[in-house]
Design a protein that fits this description.
heterodimer; A: 213 residues; alpha/beta; Rossmann fold; six-stranded mixed β-sheet; four-stranded antiparallel β-sheet; 7 helices; 33% helix; B: 293 residues; mainly alpha; MetI-like fold; 2 domains; 14 helices
């Protein structure tokens, strides 16, 4: 569950005032709005990557407003995937488990399992610099989901993919989020995302969030 | 099937002139660099007829062997110390916005723009004042450190002065390099690392530092090369005492001052060989492909 209560965020001349949002457990919400209207700012604030001036952020009935990103248990996938260039696919995917000092055997099994689900098990030993756009996004998704977060925040992860790859990944995304009962907030301009993936569509316009479908 | 005659070339004369102009400038500058080193070698070979190899002759002198060892050690230590300040400062400048950042940035450039002799004199003057001139006994439970009573005695005209004078300028260049390196690394990667469970130190050490490896090697090389060529501040702040604070640049000066041009050129060539060797190793190591060319 994601709840924003009267959240105010400002950076220079840019301002978002009194943003309220309520996403139920397991819900898949697509957030749309014009470029530069503050969609990514909202996601970054929920992640804890951007300070908010006022208000409260509540995740799964816990007020996390003052918590560090590491303590929020959120999977985050930015538009470019932001893969760690010096690591292999396997190291990228297992990164969150490495940080949590999970035993090597358990980590290997978990990495292989999620790589199978994402159809990237054949890429595990490769570096990430030469992966295609679709492969990169699958790795980024696997990396964000491996530690079983309750919440997944997606910042236009499918926007740069060709239609075939888009269909494959959106199918995987839908399956994985449904099986694991993950609450998803997905920024997208794509009509297909809004139709095929979401339970609800929100629009951010002139600093206000409105339900449009 | 219709026949389409080939279109006439549309490469303009001005394009050719432009490319040729650029190539001539590149070739002239390249010739300048190669000639600079080439004539040194020619001069040494030409003047050494019958007198043996001037480099081997220079190496046979214990003072010059001492200055080579001191140069290599002090330059390497200075380069590591420079990285020690350049990595954190470069990271702050690249990642954080704060009031007075532009002023801080400008202050950090002062060692680059100061005339070398002024740096030496300023260091010398700084060490005449507290806390450097204050005896250790005033703030430490001991009267002497390494047989000296204050930082002034411990540093000025001693080996630490060599390292400090080299560090003052080399660190500024290393900071510039590390700042540019961190600016080129996608900050999103750090943000993702934070969301995956890292604290800031873990995100920095596990994600940012490995990605900046080639920049670190470049910064180290630049700091090392700057230190090797440092002369003015060393002469004033560390002196040029043979067998004590003499490094390769001061050796060249000392040999020239007594009219020993052959040895000065031979030592210069030793410096050139050292600098080029470090450059080659750094390029091989810092390059992802491991290719020099």
């Amino acid at each position: 569950m994601i709840e924003l209560v009267d959240v105010c965020i400002s950076q220079g001349a840019f301002k978002l005032d009194n943003i309220c949002l309520n996403i139920a457990d397991g819900e898949y919400v697509v957030l749309m709005g014009k470029t530069g209207c503050g969609k990514s700012t909202i996601i970054e604030s929920i992640c804890g990557l951007r300070k908010i001036d006022k208000g409260r952020i509540i995740l799964n009935n816990v007020d996390v407003t003052l918590l560090a990103p590491a303590k929020r248990n959120i999977g985050y996938v930015p538009q470019d995937g932001a893969l760690f260039a010096t690591m292999t696919v396997s190291e990228n995917i297992g990164f969150a488990l490495d940080i949590r000092n999970v035993a090597i055997d358990v980590k290997k099994q978990a990495v292989f399992k999620i790589a199978e689900e994402m159809s990237i098990s054949h890429l595990l030993d490769r570096g990430v610099t030469k992966l295609s756009g679709g492969e990169r996004q699958r790795v980024a998704l696997a990396r964000a989901l491996i530690f079983n977060p309750n919440i997944l925040l997606l910042d236009e992860p499918l926007s740069a993919l060709d239609s075939e790859t888009y269909l494959e990944i959106s199918k995987i995304l839908k399956q994985v989020t449904q099986i694991n009962q993950v609450t998803v907030l997905h920024i997208s301009h794509n009509f297909n995302d809004q139709i095929h993936l979401s339970n609800r569509i929100l629009k951010l316009e002139a600093g206000a969030l409105t339900n449009i479908a | 099937m219709s026949y389409y005659p080939p279109r006439q070339s549309t490469i303009f004369l001005s394009d050719k002139v432009f490319v040729w102009g650029l190539s001539i400038i590149l070739a002239s500058y390249l010739f300048f660099i190669i000639a600079l080193i080439g004539y040194d070698i020619f001069y040494m070979i030409d003047g050494s007829a019958g007198n043996g190899n001037p480099i081997l002759n220079a190496l046979s002198q214990p003072e010059i062997r001492y200055s080579i060892i001191l140069s290599l050690l002090s330059c390497s230590l200075t380069a590591f110390l420079s990285l020690g300040v350049a990595i954190p400062i470069g990271y702050i400048l690249a990642r954080y916005s704060f009031k007075g950042k532009n002023l801080l940035d400008a202050i950090l450039d002062i060692p680059i723009v100061l005339p070398p002799l002024v740096i030496g004199i300023s260091l010398l003057i700084m060490f005449q004042f507290p806390p450097f001139s204050t005896p250790f006994a005033h703030y430490l439970p001991v009267d002497k450190l390494f047989g000296m009573e204050s930082f002034n005695e411990l540093v000025v005209y001693q080996i630490p002065a060599v390292i400090l004078a080299q560090f003052f300028v080399a660190a500024a260049f290393a900071i510039r390099t590390m700042k540019a390196t961190f600016e080129h690394i996608n900050p999103r990667c750090e943000q993702v690392a934070l969301s995956l469970g890292c604290n800031r130190l873990q995100a920095f050490s596990r994600v940012v530092l490995p990605e900046s490896a080639s920049g670190i090697v470049t910064a180290w090389t630049l700091a090392w090369a700057r230190s090797l060529g440092e002369f003015g501040p060393l002469l004033v702040f560390a002196g040029a005492t043979r067998g004590k604070t003499e490094v390769l640049s001061t050796t060249v000066f000392l040999e020239l001052s007594v009219g020993n041009l052959e040895t000065a050129v031979a030592v210069s060539l030793i410096m050139i060989i050292s600098a080029i060797s470090v450059l080659i190793v750094a390029r091989l190591w810092g390059n992802d492909s491991g290719a020099l060319l």
